[in-house]
Amino acid sequence: xxxRVICDKNFLLGEVDPRVFGSFAEHMGRVIYSGIYEPxxxxxxxxxxxxxxxxxVRDMKISAVRYPGGNFVSSxxxxxxxxxxxxxxxxxxxxxxxxxxxxxxxxxxxKWIRKAEAxxxxxxxxxxxxxxxxxxxxxxxxxxxxxxxxxxxxxxxDTEPYKVNMWCLGNxxxxxxxxxxxxxxxxxxxxxxxxxxxxxxxxxxxxxxCGSSLxxxxxxxxxxxxxxxxxxxxxxxxxxHQYYGGQELGTANFLAQTLDMENYIQTVKAxxxxxxxxxxxxxxxxxxxxxxxVWANPAxxxxxxxxxxxxxxxxxxxxxxxxxxxALLFAGMQMVILRNADVIRIACxxxxxxxxxxxxxxxxGEMWLQTTYYPFCxxxxxxxxxxxxxxAEGPCYNCDLFSxxxxxxxxxxxxxxxxxxxxxxxxxxxxxxxEVDIELTGFACGQIKESVTLSAKDKxxxxxxxxxxxxxxxxxxxxxxxxxxxxxxPAFSFxxxxxxxx
Length: 502
Ligand code: AHR
Hints:
alpha/beta
């Protein structure tokens, strides 16, 4: 089957903000303990950070990491996670039913993120706490010294302020599952008041307010409208969260969910435009997709029935094992984020290790990489630059959820510094390879730098047992001409073609 993708050097969609290649480290299950932090591990450094994980994080070029939650943050006391470790309290953690030892906290995370060469994104507790505690935390982190909270940081060994620039005002406050869940009116007011006070303390920071937790929330998009109305002048970004499961709906429906994600973003964009107009504001709010990912089939999930178990430290929960099929939806979601580069400035794949993660670890054991690791790595390494506006023609299918779903999904990114265009494709067709002609009007193509494909004989293949079952392989079926590329994309595959352009 034939497809055509048309790009033109004069039609640019937007700059990719490097922060869209972010991730998320929540105190949840084994994300922190025996994920990124395991002092007893053979690869641990002097701070207890697993270096096998650190290397994988660096290879993924993760640009920013959100911390400490998630649902966890909504009853978290940040003070419990600072100061001498032996004095830190053991607490009952209610979001995920765990005993939180607090041996990893703010200072440890800052050390870890510096070593990972990424930026921190912090979240304040607006579930069980409010303006005052948020201010104290910000003072602890960002104020140089000479005040009670900043001096406490210095006393604990960190003389330099952390300079945390991005702050989320709570987490998923629309969700009934959230500790301290609020109505949009209650949350909007609290977020505005907290944000205003925080910016008085540190005018350099950027603030992210909670939008809806999912596109399927009953309160979407009224929640977003109300929160924007109340916080518009104070915040810089509205958060969107999106996870998709639904493998049981069949592949055609499962993979078509990227169309829902597009609709979700367009609707939030429209809500923000309405509020901007109502307020006669000059300011344009951007978005932070600060939790996104695929929710694996429960049958493929290593999951302790934690609620029925006694309280334990870091129990294994939601350890999802991703198939080839999951990797295609994951890649499709990352393409949606890039295609909305003009409005999405931050995005965090959730989570960084073990829970719906690309990187899996065994306690005292090895680390391995899921099927989803490879799309992330390729997007993050080569999806930087300017997204090109494209037009596409090709065969489509209809399914229960959507009509006219293109079999071939794509995004093209021009990296001017590297003189390179990277075109990413998902071929959703389960049995047919796809021919693609990519017209690059106005560009002079040089040589192909790399062409790889990720596929598997069986769409349910995972990397759990054979850790190299699904890995990228060279695709030789690519040819380049002066202003075009011709490629054949194998059935049911993710593909990257990188070409030199002059
Ligand atoms: O799986 C991560 C959880 O999902 C986060 O804690 C929460 O924000 C979301 O509902």
